[in-house]
Design a protein that fits this description.
- α1 (about 5-15) crosses α10, α3 runs antiparallel to α4 and α11 (about 185-195) packs across α13 (about 220-235).
- The chain is elongated, with a radius of gyration of 35 Å.
- α13 links the parallel β1 and β2 (about 240-245).
- A nine-stranded mixed sheet has the order 3-2-1-4-5-7-6-8-11, with helices on both faces. Strands 12, 15, 16 and 17 form a four-stranded antiparallel sheet that branches. Strands 9-10 form a two-stranded antiparallel sheet.
- It contains 27 helices and 17 strands.
- With about 675 residues, the protein is of the alpha/beta class.
- It has three domains: about 5-170; about 175-475, Rossmann fold (3-Layer(aba) Sandwich); about 485-565, no CATH class.
- Helix content is about 40%, strand content about 15%.
Amino acid sequence: MSDIKSLSGFVWSIAEILRGDFRQSEYGKVILPFVVMRRLDCLLEDSKQAVLEAEKSIPESADEATRDMILFGAVGGKVKVYNRSRFTFDSLKGQDASQLHQNLIDYITKFSPKVRDIFLDKFRFTDQLKRLKEGGILWNVFERFCEIDLHPRNVSNIEMGYLFEELIRRFSEMSNETAGEHFTPREVIRLMVDLLIANDDAKLTGRGIIRQVYDPACGTGGMLALTEEALKEFNPSIRVELFGQELNDESFGICKSDMLVTGHDPEQIAFGNTLTQDAHAGKKFHYMLSNPPYGVDWKKYQDPIKSEAENMGFEGRFGAGTPRISDGQLLFLQHMISKMRDDEDGSRIGIVMNGSPLFTGGPQSGESEIRRWMLENDWVEAIVALPTDLFYNTGIQTYVWLLTNRKPKNRQGKVQLIDASGERFWEPMRKSLGSKRRKISDEARAEIVRLYAGFLNGESGESDVSKIFDITDFGYREVRVERPLKLNFQVSPERLARLADQKPYLRQDRAEKAAIEAALTTIGAQLFSSRPAFEKALSKALKASELKISAPIKKAILAALSEQDDGADICRDKDGKPEPDTGLRDHELVPLAEDWRDYMKREVLPFVPDAWVDESYIDARDKKVGRVGYEINFNRYFYRYVPPRPLDEIDAELKTLEAEIAGLLKEVAA
């Protein structure tokens, strides 16, 4: 049963027993807790008698901490779990089937307190057991689980992680969960971990090394477990402390159970919403990894987040800004940045996100300002584009961001982009798992790490997949380009009809409208190419009719009776400056490293000589002309031109298809 695919298949088959009594979306609420319970039963099997004997020796006056210490000692090793019930899965099989529900309740409630709370509070497992009993299928389900051997000597902790995530993936698909709520394939986690520690050899070598690892959306703990495994492989004496927070009940229960089984402090895995209730406030970490939900909005808990951003600024976690409500990925990244260490070692961050954080939002938008903050602080070290179809519930393009506050000198002021989306970095899976149709092989993973660790910039023929950029290459100034307003004026039936629709004019009574229109008709049908000339004629006509009009009415008349005309004179304000034509207004994105004046001379003025830059359109932070924005466009930097096929080849293919269609039509007609 050590083969995970066959094991998950067997466990999945148990779910068939639930059909009819449970909805498909509820299968996980039964199966996952049973898997956890069976795992713990196998784990504690060898120490069962020792625990029961140790319990007899505990004085009645002993407090909970003393009792835990004695019983944990009876279990032995690093395991922080015990069970005081006289039952095991094997012994329960020999009991009266009618007593199974009561006996299982006894078994669950006699786990050590932290495990008991997981079953009662997070899994709410007693409710499910009651439903199983009432449906008459409790014994059937229990008996099938007794057939599974999940002892650590047969199924390692890493393999258990695979099992949990495979089951959760299936349950998620049946529940139609959103594409953002998915689990990270192990090869992607291994890639992230390898990238994070690729150049940390010196920092991780020796004895007495302690590293704290954190995942703010830890799920079942896969990223934490694999990071610890990689660090231990590199240095067996290293001490790894794992921290995390998770919002989903079942995932949290599995992760915390795993921490107990592997000897970690379960209190370092917190339950709740990381963005609104930071359970590790004030803590700093060496390594941080995460695959936060993307494409999931944060509207329902926006108030505390926006309040923290506005009231605390950079003293809080979201001082750089907040992204649009529809996607909270950059909130998680800001949260992680707030937990970077200030000591000599600093911190390293690896986070998987979709393409949105790279380029969504224009200058001074929340997303752009967050990118600006990260890049100008020189925290972004590298970004790796991954192949599509890697994840179980979505096939979209994803990217691994690597950040640190301790860049080596050769990387300072630079960002490395690696395009690992091409065919050389993935291979097809023999059998798809949901939307996952591809995987990153060990060889491809090693190649990506080599590109990153070597800080390659087109060396060794890698110009198509690895490039180094200055931080300013991603920045630009959006300058507002104006062109002069040029209008002609005419009193014509068509334009008078437009006047009738002007809001200030609509408020006039019928007599006033008639008087104004009568005065206007005295101007005649002459076409004026100068606004001052038309205003003079308008004043003369109104004076002759003994009419006085308000400024809004005059504005409405000028708007209705005018049309844009490149051959007309420029309209000017009272200071003689050209007025801008808002209909011709444009915005140019000037590279941050270039002066906007030089850009205008080269890119704009040769084509529209009368254009100018609105120098009142300035950046809110540096107060200079143009608003600063940052974006990282992989397609622009790694565009590969594919020439079209020769026309003769296309023509030949069309003729072949026509012949095939004609043959098929003859067969149908016959």
